[in-house]
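Tokens for chain A. Residues wanted.
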């Protein structure tokens, strides 16, 4: 957990300068260092002009701070940059503290590359066997296996059809008249047969042999 927290802290400190510059705010080392880091690095002894010179130089050194070899500002800055920033007045201990802060704060720790695992092929399901419950479902979702016909009953009192009549079957399916026509009768829970033809679905009342084309809506 401590190692993870250290990783997050270092990453955050790396991103802050980039975010500040992206927002148009000037880079300022005093916004990134703790009071102890600022004091231990001897930066509290620098003048405002020297701090400004250091702020102007440090962002460009971020790539060097991320290299494999030990980072030293004396190798990364020119003589004039080093003197303008007042770093020639720091002690060896202060210089070490400053180098350590720059090295750990101006770049993000590298993370090992993660190779994505190859996707596991999904099992191929066997085609569903035709069932009465799927009858007429091709009108709702094409390519659903279905039998050639079904038998059921119209639930409740049935008085025929008159144009857009709904046929509510006991199996839960709902069909609607799909052609003009009128047929009057009076039946209670009459049996029906619905057959699939090449050009639609035909509902038949077996007792009366009356037929009408229908389409499934539920």
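Reply:
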């Amino acid at each position: 957990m401590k190692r993870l927290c250290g990783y997050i802290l270092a990453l955050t400190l790396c991103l802050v300068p980039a975010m500040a510059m992206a927002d148009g705010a000037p880079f300022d080392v005093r916004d990134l260092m703790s009071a102890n880091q600022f004091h231990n690095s001897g930066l509290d002894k620098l003048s405002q002009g020297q701090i400004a010179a250091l702020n102007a130089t440090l962002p460009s050194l971020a790539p060097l701070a991320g290299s494999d070899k030990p980072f030293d500002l004396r190798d990364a800055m020119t003589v004039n940059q080093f003197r303008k920033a007042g770093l020639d007045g720091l002690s060896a201990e202060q210089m070490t503290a400053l180098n350590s802060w720059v090295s750990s704060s101006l770049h993000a720790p590298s993370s090992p590359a993660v190779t994505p695992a190859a996707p596991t092929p999904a099992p191929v399901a066997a085609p569903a066997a035709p069932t009465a419950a799927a009858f007429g479902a091709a009108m709702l979702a094409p390519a659903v296996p279905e039998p050639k016909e079904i038998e059921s009953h119209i639930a409740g009192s049935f008085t025929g059809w008159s144009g857009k009549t709904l046929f509510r079957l006991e199996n839960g399916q709902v069909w609607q008249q799909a052609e003009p026509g009128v047929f009057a009768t009076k039946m209670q829970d009459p049996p029906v047969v619905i057959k699939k033809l090449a050009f639609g679905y035909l509902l038949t009342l077996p007792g009366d042999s009356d037929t009408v084309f229908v389409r499934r809506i539920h």
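The longest helix spans residues 2-22. Helices lie at 2-22, 35-40, 48-57, 62-65, 73-76, 79-84, 92-105.
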